[in-house]
Amino acid sequence: MIKILMPYEMQRRLFKHLKMAAVQEIGGILMGEHIEDGVFRIWDVTVQHQGGTWISFLRKIDGSLRNSLQRFFLSTRQQYTKYNYLGEWHSHPSFALIPSSCDQDSMWNIVNDPLVGANFAVLLILKVQKENLAGNVFIFAPGYEMIPGELVLEG
Q: In the sheet where 121-129 sits, what is the strand order?
């Protein structure tokens, strides 16, 4: 099972954004570090507040997203095997922490797009539940079924 580690500071940052968004879905991309076989730590995320409603979220591909990835790659000295794009995240404030069929289609499109070049992608779904951050991760890889992962909230 693939483990996704989320540092405490990242939890606080995402919790704040989720609270501000209330019932509106928000999301972005995940950038992270390969720690060891099957273990990755989230290093940075983008947060997009536009494009979401209470029932859906549509990530926009724009210059700020590319700039965020470029800054991340520069800050990690372009060590792509250790630091790279991990996948996507979004909130489900009104629904269960499982991917909808639309979420799954989006992730399959990412991992099957030769221009993206991803061997796999993580989908992290979050919400505020009883004043705590709650989440689940799912792994998508070409030729495989969706695989549940393990989210480890550090700290």
A: 147-148, 132-140, 121-129, 83-91, 27-36, 39-45, 3-6, 150-153
Q: Which two tokens stand for residue 113?
A: 């797009």
112-118 CB contacts, 8 Å cutoff, 24+ apart: 112/142, 118/85, 118/87
Q: Among 128, 60, 127, which residue's Cα sits nearest to residue 91?
A: 127
Tokens representing 153 are: 């909230």
Q: What CATH superfamily is the domain 3-153?
A: Cytidine Deaminase, domain 2 (3.40.140.10)
Segments making up each domain of the chain, as ranges: 3-153
Question: For residue range 100-145, what is the model confidence (pLDDT) as tens digits?
Answer: 999 999 999 999 998 888 899 999 999 999 999 999 999 999 999 9
Tokens 């019932």 belong to: 23
- For 77-107, give one letter per residue: b (16+ CB within 10 A) or e: eeeeeebbbbbbbbbbbeeebebeeebeebb
Which run of H or E residues covers position 68? helix 63-75
135 is written with which tokens?
């989440």
* pTM for the structure as a whole: 0.90
